[in-house]
Amino acid sequence: MREHRPILVTNTTPLIALVAATGSLEILRSLYTRVVVPLEVAAEIRAGGKQSFGVDVFKEASWLDIQDREVVLQPFLRHSLDLGEASVIQTAMNLGLPLVCIDETVGRRIARLCALDVTGTVGVLVKARRLGFPLSMPEALQRMRHRGIWLSDKVIAFALAQGG
């Protein structure tokens, strides 16, 4: 029986981290029916310019559902989070989509307070491994760290235990 493939609204860091971990964003395409990227998140990625890590891969992923207008943020979100995280949460609530991909602790906490389900880069990698995606968790984590993506010891231990 095929597992249900939900819709995901994602923030900037997971997109960059997944490119670091796997070299592409195809893992998202395989795991989710639709991957929604708020316009603010797309702008954050593109702001790095052509030479910035992951920008080329992001631009090539024509299947991403990049929103075409800025989202109007609730004051609570606007004053609590950076623009990318706030726009992910607001977009998910506006579209009635229950799943967001955020790595930052405060953003994850506020998403949960807004009654959203939360995953992050490591959660996506673990899910992919469980579903048979050809991926070496130790190598993916090493590539992320090599690119300067910070991972706590707790997150690394979880990733290796669940998807190792």
Describe the overall structure.
- This protein is 55% helix and 10% strand.
- The model has no long low-confidence stretch (mean pLDDT 92).
- The protein has a single domain, classed as Rossmann fold.
- It has 164 residues and is α/β, with parallel strands linked by helices.
- It is globular and about 40 Å long.
- It starts with 6 loop residues before the first strand and ends with a helix.
- The chain has a five-stranded parallel beta sheet.
- Helix 1 packs across helix 9, helix 3 runs antiparallel to helix 6 and helix 8 runs parallel beside helix 10.
- The protein is built from ten helices and five strands.
Question: What descriptive keywords fit this protein?
Answer:
single chain, 164 residues, alpha/beta, Rossmann fold, five-stranded parallel β-sheet, 10 helices, 5 strands, 55% helix, 10% strand
Unreliable residue stretches? none
* Name of the CATH superfamily: 5'-nuclease
Number of domains: 1
Structural class computed from helices and strand pairing: alpha/beta
Task: Give, in spatial order, the strands making up the sheet with the most strands.
Answer: 3-2-1-4-5
Span from first to last CA? 24 Å
Helix fraction, binned, reads 40-55%
Determine the oligomeric state from the structure: single chain
DSSP strand (E) fraction? 5-15%
DSSP summary, beta strand count: 5
Give the biggest beta sheet.
5 strands, parallel
* H-E string: EHHEHHEHHEHEHHH
Q: What's this entry about, in short?
A:
The chain is of the alpha/beta class. The protein contains 10 helices and 5 strands.
